[in-house]
Design a protein that fits this description.
It is a single chain. With 594 residues, the chain is mainly alpha-helical. It is 59% helix and 6% strand. It contains 26 helices and 9 strands. Strands 2-3-5-4-6 form a 5-stranded mixed beta sheet, with no helix packed on it. The protein has a two-stranded antiparallel sheet with strand order 1-7. A two-stranded antiparallel ribbon has the order 8-9. Helix 17 runs antiparallel to helix 18, helix 18 runs parallel beside helix 20 and helix 23 runs antiparallel to helix 25. The longest helix is centred in the C-terminal third of the chain and has 46 residues. Pathway: Protein modification; protein ubiquitination. InterPro entries: NPH3/RPT2-like, NPH3_dom, SKP1/BTB/POZ_sf. Belongs to the NPH3 family. This is NPH3 domain-containing protein. Keywords: Ubl conjugation pathway.
Length: 594
């Protein structure tokens, strides 16, 4: 960072209580008071260079002592002392950090070249144009200091010139960047990377106040030179620099007034960042949008900002990972309580947009793939939040049911989430278990998962019965398919029946045979319909009997175990539902082993 040295004399200013004076053999004849500091100085070095002091001391004699109050001088006593030292010829250093206050104070004192050639204002302006504006970090540092004197800096053109210089350098092609910059990305070292990264400017610009940062970003966007992703990266870097994390938001180490003041500042930063996000999809990551959304809920941002964040996150929801969704709820002090309502709000908005766009889509496979990715994401997310002790069944079920049927290829991942929830919440009531497992479609489980579910003792009885029926139904269909005649047998049978028909027609004896054939055909058809109806009722009858008997067995457990024996051609069979489930599970295991 560049600096300008003026003067050669040693600094002889010293302080006695609240008085600053100069070591000199000549008595002080100029007393200047600024705030709580009193300066004892001399007219002869200051008046020739300061037009303001000349006017204020115009009516006084040379030997008369003058007292002045300059409380409204920009930059205060520090800036005035720089001007006073310049008048005395004492050595001072001017840099980007004290340039603004020095120039404003010199302008206030009218230390122009019209008063005396080579005056302070002329030297400061020359340093500003030739050194500060030519440097990258000097321009940024100078622009930062304008926040202390915004009106003076704006009126003197310091802000505009610094912003123009910064924008010009940002738009410079990376190969032509020759100045020093800050770049501390993880894993990046300048020695290994000889080329300048495209986002080399983002960290230095993030040091600016949000209003100045906004001026630069909006000016850059208006040029349409840089891609939206680069603008989004600058917003991401700025948010990481100024917005606290979720755990910091919920810390209670500061007073209420400080917390409210900090909230107000962070709220303004967040709302400004959201307003600057480019409209192009992918300009910022979905993980970044979820972070902003989670913070916005705590800060209490406007509904417009929150709605916009939900909309933007829903547009890129399919690109999210489970880690992008894991934010603790701001409504609870427990850090492990995940905010499922936030995820559900984004999911519902995604589904609205998906339903609106998918019917008229040219490439329907893209929309199907999109919603399938979201369905898998939600089921994976449910497997994580199921481990939370504070997760309510209603919230878990509500989020799972929000996912439409088309979004799930199967229910394997959903079953895993339910199984984890049952393990982590062993004290669940029967009603909650029934409600939880009611979202599971047993027909959409893979054979491996269904085999595991049949042996899962955590599942309620009704779910196990459904699983057993589907296993049985699948086995019966497989058996019946093996008994069906093959195509060539059907053809041979048709030929034989044709030959028989021709023989009977030649004998003119169709009457009795026709009646016998019709009667046999009717009996076979009736038998087929009866068999079909009985198969259709099998699932319902089996489930009703087993559930009813299971409930009776539970309610009468104090009186003894209820055992019903029914006589059949093969002997007595135990109809206890729990024993039937055990036998079915053992058969299932035996089948798997085979």
């Amino acid at each position: 960072m560049k600096f300008m040295k003026l003067g050669t004399k040693a600094d002889t200013f010293h302080t006695e209580q609240a008085t600053r004076t100069l070591i000199s053999d000549i008595a002080a004849d100029l007393v200047i008071q600024i705030n709580d500091i009193t300066y004892l100085l001399h007219k002869f070095p200051l008046l020739p260079k300061c037009g303001l002091l000349q006017r204020l001391c115009y009516d006084t004699g040379d030997s008369e002592s003058v007292s002045l109050e300059l409380h409204d001088i920009p930059g205060g006593e520090d800036a005035f002392e720089l001007c006073a030292k310049f008048c005395y010829g004492i050595a001072i250093n001017i840099s980007a950090h004290n340039f603004v206050s020095a120039l404003c104070a010199a302008k206030f004192l009218r230390m122009n070249d019209s008063i005396e050639k080579g005056n302070f204002v002329g030297k400061l302006e020359s340093f500003f144009n030739s050194c500060i504006l030519e440097g990258w970090k000097d321009s940024i540092a100078t622009l930062q200091t304008t926040a202390t004197l915004p009106e003076w800096s704006e009126n003197l053109g310091i802000v505009r010139k610094c912003i123009d210089s910064i924008i010009e350098k940002i738009l410079t092609p990376p190969p032509q960047v020759k100045w020093s910059y800050t770049y501390t990305r993880p894993g990046y070292t300048k020695k290994q990377h000889h080329s300048v990264p495209k986002d080399w400017w983002t960290e230095d610009v993030s040091d600016l106040d949000i209003d100045l940062f906004r001026c630069i970003v909006m000016a850059i966007r208006s040029t349409y030179v840089l891609p939206p992703q680069l603008i989004g990266e600058a917003l991401h870097v700025y948010a990481c620099r100024w917005l606290p994390g979720i755990t910091k938001l919920k810390s209670s180490g500061s007073s209420v007034s400080q917390t409210e003041e900090s909230k107000e500042k962070n709220r303004k930063i967040l709302e400004t960042i959201v307003s600057m996000i480019p409209a192009d999809r992918g300009s910022v990551s979905v993980g970044f949008l979820f972070r902003l959304l989670s913070i916005s809920i705590h800060l209490g941002v406007s509904s417009v900002t929150k709605t916009e964040l939900i909309r933007r996150a829903s547009l890129q929801f399919e690109e999210a990972t489970v880690s992008d969704l894991l934010y603790p709820s701001t409504s609870s002090s427990d850090q492990n309580y995940y905010d499922t309502e936030l995820v559900q709000a984004v999911l519902e908005t995604f589904l609205k947009l998906w339903k609106r766009m998918s019917p008229g889509a040219v490439d329907s496979s893209y929309f199907l793939r999109s919603i399938r990715n979201v369905g898998k994401l939600i089921d994976s997310y449910l497997q994580v939040v199921a481990r939370d002790d504070n997760m309510q069944v209603s919230k878990f079920v509500s989020l799972a049911e929000t996912v439409p049927s088309i979004a799930r290829e199967d229910h394997d991942d959903l079953y895993r989430a339910i199984n984890i929830y049952l393990k982590m919440h062993p004290e669940m009531s029967k009603a909650d278990k029934k409600r939880l497992c009611g979202i599971l479609d047993c027909q959409r489980l893979s054979p491996e998962v269904r085999g595991h579910a049949v042996k899962n003792e955590l599942l309620p009885l009704r779910t196990v019965v459904q699983l057993l029926y589907f296993e049985q139904d699948k086995g019966s269909k497989a058996t019946s398919s093996h008994k069906l005649p093959k195509p060539h047998e059907i053809l041979l049978g048709a030929k034989d029946r044709a030959a028989t028909t021709r023989d009977t027609q030649s004998k003119h004896s169709l009457g009795p045979n026709k009646e016998e054939f019709n009667g046999e055909e009717i009996r076979e058809r009736d038998h087929h319909h009866k068999t079909k109806r009985s198969d259709g009722k099998l699932a319902l009858d089996m489930e009703k009997k087993m559930v009813i008997r299971g409930d009776i067995a539970e309610t009468q457990s104090e009186k003894g175990r209820v055992v019903r024996d029914e006589s059949s051609s093969s002997g007595k069979v135990d109809k206890d539902p729990k024993k039937m489930i055990r036998r079915a599970r053992s058969k299932s295991e035996h089948g798997v082993k085979k």
